[in-house]
Amino acid sequence: MKAWHFSETAYPYLPPDSEYESIRVNLPNRNYDPKKGAALYDRFIEEWQVAEEEGVNIMLNEHHQTATCVDPAAPLVLAALARVTKTARLLILGNPIANRRQPVRVAEEMALIDVLSHGRLEAGFVRGVPYEISAGNSNPMRTNERFAEALDLIVKAWTSHDGPFSHEGRFFHHRQVNIWPRPYQSPHPPVWISTTTPNGAQRVGAQGFVQATFLTGYDGTRRVYDAYRRGWREAGRAQDVPINRLAYAALVYVGDNEADARAGAEKILWYVRANKVPQHFSFPPGYAPPQAFTRILRGDVGDQHSNFSAKATVDGTINAGLMMAGTPDQVYAQIRKMYDHVGGFGHLLIMGQAGFLDHDETVRSIRNFARHVYPRLKAEMPDDAISGFSAPAERTAV
Amino acid sequence: MGETAIAREIITLAGIEIELFEGGKGTPLLFLHGAQGFSPTHPYVAPLTQHRRLIAPSHPGFGASGLPLWLDSVDDIAYVYLEFLDHRGLDRIDIVGCSLGGWLAAEIATKTPERVGKLALVGPVGVKLGPTDKLDIPDIFAMSQEKVARLIYHDVAKEKPDFAKMSDEQLTTIARNRETTALLTWEPWMHNPKLRHRLHRVSAPTLFIRGASDGLVSQSYVDGYARLIPGALVTTIVAAGHAPQLEQPEEFARVLFDFLDA
Q1: CB-defined contacts A:B, below 8 A
Q2: What average pLDDT score do residues B154-169 get?
Q3: Do residue A298 and residue B187 have CB atoms under 8 angstroms apart?
Q4: What is the predicted pLDDT for the residue at A288?
Q5: A214 FRET partner, CA 20 to 30 A, in A92, A224, A296, B56?
Q6: Does residue B255 register a pLDDT over 60?
Q7: From CA A9, how far away is CA A226, in angstroms rounded?
Q8: Residue ranges in chain A whose pLDDT is less than 70
Q9: SS3 string of chain A?
């Protein structure tokens, strides 16, 4: 098991949510005080450094026009982290390549970070959550098709070393692709893809990339992983799916004791409670199948992000498998339960900071995890373990 | 108002399966629907088919028509319909286009001016006239469905659709029409930057029709659009919004035929 400290670098100093329509897309940036923002970045970077000291890897992501994640150019922050860290693996999850107009530029940015970090980059790619569509002015139709073409082009740019090649695709056109630098790692940095749906996971499994899923809970995660394992096997990648191909992201707070854990968990729940977004930003046309919109027209407002709720509770999110919070023993047990329920996963993406969880609390949780939980995970869930429900009967049945 | 049978068939144009509605007797009139699509149950269908042979295709990606991956613009659809005119041997035809369909009709009239008899554009989009820092057409994808309805209709309460009573198929069509509208209009928003520089080619007598309460297409937008087409006229229908053909179908038909039959 590998663990990753993930911070969305949120800006929590907002007016009451009754005073704005949405925390994303159209919340005026007069609500962002750059001096407070700079201080936040100082501490967030320090927290990633603490994670490295404790043997935990580093993860960040990218969102646009939102207080929930003030990192609209994740490669810039990753470049800074590449120079203030020495050993941790650096995961960007990810580059929103359905919304980026120049995939070759993304290939260049990632190759440069791989060089700056001496080969520590883990390059993740995402279609992007629906609220990114308006911010990026990105056509909400055909995002999967753009994503697929962009990813192919990026991997080819990384792995072509004999002078320019051309690309004349459906969405992107280049005559002279020949990136400098090329990636430090060979043949290229590990590729991660996030998806929360079985259909998407099956495609990722067929490609053999690392699959990450966010806050999908017990059964949702199992469905995603089952689809990944099915895609992997159907593509002829052998029966055994290594656990290091699968990642799960959860809110995590490891307290010194139950009282500390409860207080930290309440604070980190901000991530779930604060995500106030109206339907017109969470359901752009074409992002989800038409059937999803028909449910809205009928008045069913549920969506694939329905785990986000102002009414969410600590106990509810723990019971759903979205949060691992408690004492070290309790958190270990929660991770173990998820691991066993979904057939095993090799990466725990720790959403370890949110809202008003302060620096000392964040660091305390990182250290409690690294010193009292992580060693057990590494011992009991080795990276070369096999994912899936590997009773011989099922193995032969597949 | 008599009932007229509307036939429905699926034809193939440019390799795309196109749903085609047709009914009524008289001189052919090509009806190009807007973002809401065409339905034989719409209230303007009966008055229009009393005087004309109404020909109403569902655009690619709307209704039951296919949507190939290569197609992503109103310009593309204009060429599909030029092929339709060839296919049907229609050397010259009157066209009425509503909203997005008005943009489509204008594109056709710039490409083959000689094939358009008369041209009626109802609350059309398709050009950019105002300043860089102000949308000519409000961003309907950045507001609630309720607010969009208030901009579209003069009488929202009367036009409010009852989604709860609709079938899965009807709702899926609504969702799909919305998707294709986004595909075609997203960027540049609701216009083709080239179109305004081609509109001087339009030779058909042209009438712009605007609902007085239209919250999407302003009077100044329609007036500016009309100035780009030689000799174009502008008229207004009261107690109607962006879709006067839905809210005032009889008055719409009267205004339209006054123009077409003059």
Answers
A1: 71
A2: 91
A3: no
A4: 87
A5: A296
A6: yes
A7: 32
A8: 301-308, 390-398
A9: CEEEEEECCCCCCCCCHHHCCCCECCCCHHHCCHHHHHHHHHHHHHHHHHHHHCCCEEEECCCCCECCCCCCCHHHHHHHHHHHCCCCCEEEEEEECCCCCCHHHHHHHHHHHHHHCCCCEEEEEECCCCCHHHHHCCCCCCHHHHHHHHHHHHHHHHHCCCCCEEEECCCCEEEEECCCCCCCCCCCCCEEEECCCHHHHHHHHHHCCEEEEECCHHHHHHHHHHHHHHHHHHCCCCCCEEHHHEEEEEEEEECCCHHHHHHHHHHHCHHHHCCCCCHHHHCCCCCCCHHHHHHHHCCCCCCCCCCCCCCCCHHHHHHHCCEEEECHHHHHHHHHHHHHHHCCCCEEEEEEECCCCCHHHHHHHHHHHHHHCHHHHHHHCCCCCEECCCCHHHHHHC
Within 8 A by CB and 6+ apart from A302, the residues are A295
Q: What is the pLDDT of residue A3?
A: 98
Mind listing the pLDDT tens digit for each residue in B192-225? 999 999 999 999 999 999 999 999 999 999 999 9
With a cut of 80, say whether residue B3 has pLDDT above it. Answer: no
Architecture per CATH, B6-260? 3-Layer(aba) Sandwich (3.40)
Query: How much is the mean pLDDT over chain B?
Result: 96
β-sheet bridge partners, residue B70:
none
Give the B-side interface with A, CB within 8 Å: 69-70, 141-145, 163-164, 166, 168, 171-172, 174-176, 178-183, 186-187
A138 is written with which tokens? 């990105």
**Predicted confidence (pLDDT) per residue in A154-166, tens digit:** 999 999 999 999 9
Give residue A120's domain range. Answer: 2-397
When pLDDT is averaged across residues B153-165 and rounded to a whole number, the result is 91
Report the CATH number that the domain containing residue A370 is assigned in CATH.
3.20.20.30
What is the pLDDT, as a whole number, of residue A238?
A: 86
How many domains does one find in chain A? 1
Chain A contact set for B144 (CB, 8 A): 278-280
Beta-carbon separation of A299 and B163 below 8 A: yes
Nearest to B80 by CA among B10, B13, B11: B13
Cα–Cα–Cα angle for A252, A258, A264, rounded to 5 degrees: 40
Residues 6+ positions from A222 with CB-CB distance below 8 Å: A341, A342, A343
pLDDT value of residue A290? 84
Distance CA A125, CA A130 (A): 15
- Sequence ranges of the domains in chain B: 6-260
Q: What is the pLDDT of residue A297?
A: 82
Cβ separation B183–A294 shorter than 8 A = no
Taking CB atoms and an 8 Å cutoff, what residues of chain A touch B149? none
pLDDT in the model for residue A302: 54
CA distance to A114, A146, A181, A217, A391, per residue, from A349 (Å): 21, 26, 29, 14, 27
Mean pLDDT within B97-118: 98
